[in-house]
Structures are given as C-alpha cells and as structure tokens.
Amino acid sequence: MQDVKQISDLKLRASFGISGNNRIGNYSAIGLLSTGFYPTGDAVQNTVNPSTMANNDLGWERTRQYNLGFELGLFNNRIRLEGDFYDSQSLDLLLNVPVPTITGYSTQMQNIGKVQNRGMEFTLNTKNLTGEFAWSSNFNISFNKNKVLDVLYMEVLQMRIMHLSQSLGIRLPVFMAINISEFSRVKKNWLNIHI
Predict the structure, then answer these.
(1) 8 Å CB contact between 79 and 73
(2) How far apart are the first and last CA of the chain?
(3) Residue 103 · residue 72 · CB < 8 Å
(4) pLDDT for the residue 1
(5) Residue 9's CB: how many other CB atoms inside 10 A?
C-alpha cells in the first residue's frame, strides 16, 4: 500500500462483546416482604406480607454485539471516509409479565424476548480549502433496522387469558403452545374464542 500515493491512511477494525444490564432492582429474583397493619377488634396488629413474586430463573439482560469498520484517508487525509457495520442482539429482555391474580400478585419480573439492531454508519470529512481561508465539510448518514426476534407470546397470552377468565368468572381455553408465526392468526381471532 505504500506505493499507492493517493491512499494516506487505511485501517480495518473488528470487535465483539457481550455486556449485561443489571437494572432489575436489588433482590428482584427473590420474594420480598413488606410491612402493613391489620385491625383486630380494638387493636391494630403489625403484619408482614409478601410483596413480590419470586423468580429463581431471573437474570441480567445481555447484549451481544459484532462490529466491523474501516477508515480510509485519501490525498494526505484531505478526504476521510469511515464506515461501521454492526449487529447487536439484546437477549433475555426484562419485563413485568402479568400473572393470574389468584396467585396473590399482579405481575412477575421475567426474562422474556430477544431484539436485534442491525445497521451501518458512514462519515465523510473533506478539507476543501486549506491555507488562510479554510473550508471543510462533514457528512454522515446511518441506517438502522430494529427487529423483535422473539417474545414469549405463549406465556403472556396464557397469563392474559387466565386473568380474563378469572375477571369474567368463566372458563376460557388456554393455549398450550404458540409460536411467533401463529401470533398474528391468534390476534385476529382473539374475539372469536369459543368455550
């Protein structure tokens, strides 16, 4: 590359990493207790009540990312072009999932779902004029595609159907299995559930 005088700089780079998001609150995996009061006759008794539903499988959200990039300098770096390509997947997303109220709780924190961010970024810097009068230009553009790869619709729908069943006081069928391709069909037929 030293023989190519027009190219003053050329770099290639690649990276991979996994990072965690621990914003689940302290002790969210275990059942927490809260204090309260209960009237008994003429006195008020102190009580200790369960306040959150335990989830021993609860963990951090994880983001796994791949990056590829390049830097190209031309004509003594008067023109610089940089490009980055990335693929990021967030795994085990944290969500408060509705649970049947018969459990005594309304939600439970769970790891549920996977999201992908894929895209590219380009930057072009030019030194149009140098000297006493200097003029430079900067241009950048980026493209990003966000896609939900997986959400455990089965569990969410089962919980919502059970919750609806309890609220209405009737027995509704519970879906035992559902995948993401069937979700749109189930969503369209949501009002056509037969007992």
Answers:
(1) yes
(2) 74
(3) no
(4) 60
(5) 12
pTM for the full predicted model? 0.61
Q: Inform me whether the pLDDT recorded for 126 exceeds 90.
A: yes
Helix (H) or strand (E) segment spanning residue 88: strand 79-91
CA distance 175 to 160: 11
Which positions ≥6 away from 134 have C-beta within 8 Å?
A: 127
Distance CA 135, CA 186 (A): 60
DSSP codes of every residue in 130-188:
-SSS-EEEEEEEEEEEEEEEE--HHHHHHHHHHHHHHHHTS-----S---HHHHHHHHH
DSSP letters, 14-53, are EEEEEEEE-TT-TTTTS--EEEEEEEETTEEEEEEEE-S-
What is the mean pLDDT of the segment spanning 118-142? Answer: 92
- Compute the C-alpha angle 22/155/87, nearest 5°: 50
- β-bridge pairing 135-150 and 114-129: antiparallel
153-164 pLDDT, tens digit per residue, is 555 556 566 666
Q: Which two three-digit tokens encode residue 53?
A: 């539903």
Whether residue 135 is predicted with pLDDT greater than 70 in this model: the reply is: yes
